[in-house]
Design goal:
The protein is 79% helix and 0% strand. With 175 residues, the chain is an all-alpha fold. Helix 2 (21-36) runs antiparallel to helix 6 (113-149) and helix 4 (58-87) packs antiparallel against helix 6 (113-149).
Length: 175
């Protein structure tokens, strides 16, 4: 139970921190792609590489991945339908044959209908998820945080020695 509270408080600290909306939204979008596509594929390694190379909030990516894995499980029949329709296009058969005969491309498992469908849907929807995540973070910071900081409870808590101790501790030993 304490692990759950620790993760929840970490999320609230992240949302209230000075971390930019773009990094958090990019983390949500990367987590969306990770969550929608099957694990243990070349696409997953590519997303992990992007997480470590670019300024993307990794914690938010993992949290979003956890959430979207459940959504992907429900959407697997849709992914199968989308992937089957793409893989059965006659005009693309030659391209798929050449791709399958290349050295690393078969590791993407693109010939699986669920993998193909989830990959296409994730790539097409990731910009929408990015914009949605950015707007949610901005709205949260403007409405919830601003209103909470104006409450008498928060002002009273800030006047306590416990709050002063925590801010001193966080400055010296926080992340």
């Amino acid at each position: 139970m304490t692990l759950l509270f620790k993760q929840l408080f970490g999320l609230l600290k992240l949302l209230n921190s000075e971390t930019g909306e773009n990094q958090i939204a990019a983390g949500i979008a990367a987590g969306f792609v990770l969550g929608m596509t099957p694990a243990f594929s070349l696409q997953t390694l590519l997303i992990f590489l992007c997480l470590f190379v670019f300024r993307i909030q990794i914690g938010m990516a993992f949290l979003a991945c956890f959430f979207f894995k459940f959504v992907a499980w429900v959407l697997d029949p849709l992914f199968h339908a989308v992937g089957s329709s793409i893989l059965e296009l006659g005009a693309l058969q030659g391209i798929f044959t050449r791709l399958y005969n290349m050295p690393l491309v078969p590791l993407t498992r693109f010939n699986n209908s669920v993998v193909m469908g989830s990959g296409v849907v994730a790539i097409l929807l990731s910009p929408v998820i990015y914009l949605w995540g950015k707007s949610l973070v901005i709205k949260y910071r403007v409405t919830v945080v601003a209103r909470f900081k104006e409450t008498k409870i928060w002002k009273a808590f800030r006047a306590t020695s416990l709050y002063n101790w925590y801010t001193t501790y966080d400055q010296h030993f926080g992340s």
